[in-house]
Amino acid sequence: MSDDRHDRRARRSGQDRHLPCQGPYGDEGDPGDCADPVRFEVARHRRPPLRVCPVHLGPSLLLASGVLWPPGIVLVR
Question: Per the record, where are the segments of Basic and acidic residues compositional bias (predicted)?
Answer without folding.
Answer: 1-19
